[in-house]
Amino acid sequence: MLTDHPASLSLQLDPIKVLVTGAAGQIAYSLLYSIANGDVFGKDQPIILVLLDIPPMLPVLDGVVMELQDCALPLLREVIPTDKVEVGFKDLDAAILVGSMPRKEGMERKDLLKANVAIFKTQGAALDKYAKKTVKVLVVGNPANTNCLIAAKSAPSIPKENFSCLTRLDHNRARSQVAMRVGVPSDCVKDVVIWGNHSSTQYPDVHHAKVQMQGKEVPVFDAVKDDAWLKGDFITTVQQRGAAVIKARKLSSAMSAAKAICDHMRDIWFGTPEGEFISMGIYSSGNSYGVPDDLIFSFPLTIKNKTWKIVDGLEINDFSRGKMDATAAELVEERDTAISFLSV
Ligand code: NAD
Ligand code: LMR
């Protein structure tokens, strides 16, 4: 007699529909397995994976679909490869918007604005038309903050709070740099903040960060004991890390970007760890840190019940204020340039 297999017992939730755009690209190749394996939305959550790319990439996408099938992952109920937005954006629970052009050596991310921002206008409109109003949208394609803002503006029927952009990679980079410096595992460093733009003006701020060492929590400045490094090379290393990876690999980061996407979306779905905050680019209106309204700006956040809350009350000294203002000014300029390209 057949008995229920433990795996099928865990398949009782309704499947959720998750879109990854740029699905034939290099980030997607590092990302799709983790999503389909339950590492993001939960080990008991069946998934319908929608894979969007442009028409010339459909043959490559076929190969990705074959590989996903060949993984024999029990949570993966269906894979839908497509080049059509009306198929790709239909009834989505989550959308991870990666598809766009990456920068090459010597470029700033904002140099991609002209090539990429139109994609996010089209895809914002498609979210508005076809996706669930509860859809959670993560924008990864660069320049991620401004693309996210354009997508959100192009989807007026979806709450702006549902849109976020990826600065978790910068957050993880900052955490890891401090951990390596102190000689502790990366999870012993918490509460770093990435303020602002996912660009070379971003401000990785460790004034509120702590290191777990010798059985107690120590402020990062006390643990590192090198203020000049924390206010100098540490910041530029994190700001320039994407460019350093491109210089070395001749391709932009993919494995670490995929890991950060998983961290970001998992925290949206299940909440941030108790007593800890993370960084995410979110809609700035109404914040308490004097950041201009109507930007997608990276803040320290906690998340509960799929709802984020900015961590208020962190003390901002003059050093931090200057850096936060500089990255905000860049975002204002990017927003205005994007709008002039698109007339959104
Ligand atoms: P890639 O070139 O390997 O893949 C991009 C894919 O997007 C390609 O398959 C391409 O055909 C597809 N694409 C292009 N236009 C599309 C459209 N309109 N709809 C659907 N798909 C489309 O690039 P990648 O390395 O995967 O990087 C993708 C993007 O992510 C780049 O813009 C890169 O700069 C950005 N990125 C952001 C972060 C971050 O932390 N925010 C980190 C790494 C990379
Ligand atoms: C990164 O930070 O690695 C990505 O945004 C890719 C890039 O262009 O730097």
Automatic annotation (TrEMBL):
Catalytic residues identified in the record: 198
GO biological process, one term: malate metabolic process
One Pfam family here: Ldh_1_N
Keywords: NAD, Oxidoreductase, Tricarboxylic acid cycle
SUPFAM superfamilies assigned: LDH C-terminal domain-like, NAD(P)-binding Rossmann-fold domains
Keyword Oxidoreductase in record: yes
Lactate/malate dehydrogenase C-terminal domain location: 167-341
Catalytic reaction annotation: (S)-2-hydroxyglutarate + NAD(+) = 2-oxoglutarate + NADH + H(+); (S)-malate + NAD(+) = oxaloacetate + NADH + H(+)
Entry binding sites for NAD(+): 53, 116, 140-142
EC number(s) reported in the record: 1.1.1.37
UniProt binding sites for substrate: 103, 109, 142, 173
GO molecular function: L-malate dehydrogenase (NAD+) activity
EC main group: oxidoreductase
Lactate/malate dehydrogenase N-terminal domain sequence ranges: 16-163
HAMAP family recorded: Malate_dehydrog_2 (MF_01517)
PANTHER family hit by this protein: MALATE DEHYDROGENASE (PTHR23382)
Function: Catalyzes the reduction of aromatic alpha-keto acids in the presence of NADH. Plays essential roles in the malate-aspartate shuttle and the tricarboxylic acid cycle, important in mitochondrial NADH supply for oxidative phosphorylation. Catalyzes the reduction of 2-oxoglutarate to 2-hydroxyglutarate, leading to elevated reactive oxygen species (ROS).
Family: Belongs to the LDH/MDH superfamily. MDH type 2 family.
Name of the protein: Malate dehydrogenase
Organism annotation: Scleropages formosus
Gene: MDH1
